[in-house]
Design brief:
- The chain is built from eleven helices and 18 strands.
- It has three domains: about 250 residues, Protocatechuate 4,5-dioxygenase, Chain B (3-Layer(aba) Sandwich), CATH 3.40.830.10; about 90 residues, Hypothetical protein ph0010, domain 1 (Glycoprotein, Type 4 Pilin); about 70 residues, Hypothetical protein ph0010, domain 2 (Dna Ligase, domain 1, 2-Layer Sandwich).
- α5 packs parallel to α8 and α9 crosses α10.
- By secondary structure, the protein is α+β, with helices and mostly antiparallel strands.
- The strands form five sheets. The protein has a six-stranded mixed sheet, with helices on both faces. The protein has a four-stranded antiparallel sheet with strand order 12-11-13-18, covered by helices on one side. A four-stranded antiparallel sheet has the order 14-17-15-16, with helices on one face.
């Protein structure tokens, strides 16, 4: 899969020192968040960055893209005309997107600050590649994000999506649009959604979105649609009355890619002595994990270990990925021709913590282990459709063959989830 990264960033020109002239230091958390995000993109060897900007011309319908072989722009509007950018367009990738999104169309214009600010930090970090710039869709942003994400997944070279947008402009009375209670409420919902459950960010009331005076909500939905993984909030602040959020929405991991390699080698009868183990130091640690396979969004297999039983995580992943594909009793063994149709994630488990009460659980943050006599059941955290502790315990007991009314011992654990 060649879409390897999706991020969300703000675009205040004041972050650029030549524009901020010292005021940018107030936004150090945002600057540090930007630097971290750009470093992730560089570490993944991204060749093309797709930017979604709310300040490009915004058509009522369809998906607009900046036309041309070379896209240019500068910060002249902000009294820094010497800071100029010129990037080649990835024409081949753009043609792939246009084939998948028939209502995409060209728009004329230069790079606006919604694209220039992230490009400034990418250049500062040392990135130099090709770009595509889309205008933020006013309608169906998540659908367009999915369509673009699928086109990027089919592309042979590594790509990243940067969704650009500021949150509420109404956090303070002396902010751009003066204070409104919906401003901090909107930002709090978005930040909470990205930290705990992204479904909270979808379908917000239109009056709340409008009253918040934001410009990046649809960009965020576009990014979530493109591909979603283990979302991480790098920074959030609002020093000038505008919410600045930097977040990682998706990051491809060699750990999940290694699980696919293991399963592929097994199903295609390739000799394992030719299998290359990635250099991630975590794979050398003695850790337990679960490997989950999905096909068309539905579970296709899941096998794991509560405690590590092999010499290192690499061996644990090898065994569990093969078992998830061939030994999960709920499914027929996976066939080689299904491999292109499945997605793989790896959950690396943290330490087990015994707890006294279910009040110490949170199904979005903690997995749970239940025990009654010799019966033991485990359920991973952050599963679709498992929104309450009661439901989480119900499923865990069911998996263990424990009656709903029976008392159980409880353990909780956190996981680090890795996606392809």
């Amino acid at each position: 899969m060649s879409l390897v990264y999706v991020g969300y960033v703000p675009h205040p020109p004041i972050l650029v020192p030549e524009i901020g002239r010292g005021e940018e230091k107030v936004c150090q958390d945002t600057i540090d968040g930007f630097a971290r995000l750009c470093q992730e993109i560089i570490s993944l060897d991204v060749e093309t960055v797709v930017i979604v900007s709310p300040h490009a011309p915004l058509p009522d319908d369809g998906l607009g893209f900046l036309a041309g072989d070379i896209l240019k722009g500068d910060f002249g509007r902000f009294r820094a005309e010497k800071i100029k950018f010129s990037y080649p367009v990835d024409k081949e990738l753009l043609e792939s997107v246009k084939a998948r999104v028939p209502d995409s169309f060209p728009i004329r214009g230069e790079l606006d600050h919604g694209a220039l600010v992230p490009l400034y930090f990418l250049k500062k970090a040392g990135w130099n590649g090709r770009i595509i710039v889309f205008s933020m869709p006013l309608n169906k942003p998540e659908k367009y994000g999915r369509d673009v994400g699928q086109a990027l997944n089919d592309y042979p070279q590594k790509c990243a999506v940067i969704a650009s947008g500021d949150l509420s402009h109404r956090l303070k009375e002396d902010g751009p649009y003066s204070y409104h209670p919906s401003g901090p409420k909107f930002d709090n919902i978005i930040v909470k959604a990205l930290k705990k459950d992204t479904t909270l960010a979808r379908g917000l009331p239109s009056d709340l979105v409008e009253e918040a005076g934001q410009c990046g909500y649809n960009s965020l939905l576009f990014g979530l649609g493109a591909r979603e993984g283990s979302v991480k909030v790098f920074s959030y602040e609002g020093p000038f009355g505008v919410g600045y959020l930097v977040a990682e929405i998706y990051r491809s991991s060699p750990i999940a890619g290694f699980a696919r390699e293991c399963l592929t080698y097994h199903l295609t009868a390739q000799p394992f002595d030719k299998l290359i183990i990635p250099g991630d130091p975590l794979l050398k640690e003695k850790r337990s994990c679960f490997v989950t396979l999905k096909k068309d969004g539905d579970l296709r297999g899941c096998i794991g270990t509560v405690q590590p039983v092999r010499e290192n995580l690499a061996s644990e992943i090898k065994h569990n990925s093969i078992s998830a594909g061939t030994q999960d009793p709920r499914f027929w063994p996976l066939q080689p021709d299904e491999l292109p149709l499945i997605t793989i994630s790896v959950d690396v488990l943290g330490d087990m913590e015994k707890i006294i009460s279910s009040e110490e659980l949170d199904p979005k943050r903690y997995g749970v282990v239940v025990r009654h006599g010799g019966k033991v059941g485990l359920l991973l955290p952050h599963l679709e459709g498992v929104d309450t502790v009661e439901h989480q315990l119900e499923i865990a007991k069911q998996k263990a063959g424990i009656w709903p009314e029976e008392e159980v011992e409880l353990w909780r654990f956190e996981v680090e989830r890795y996606y392809e």
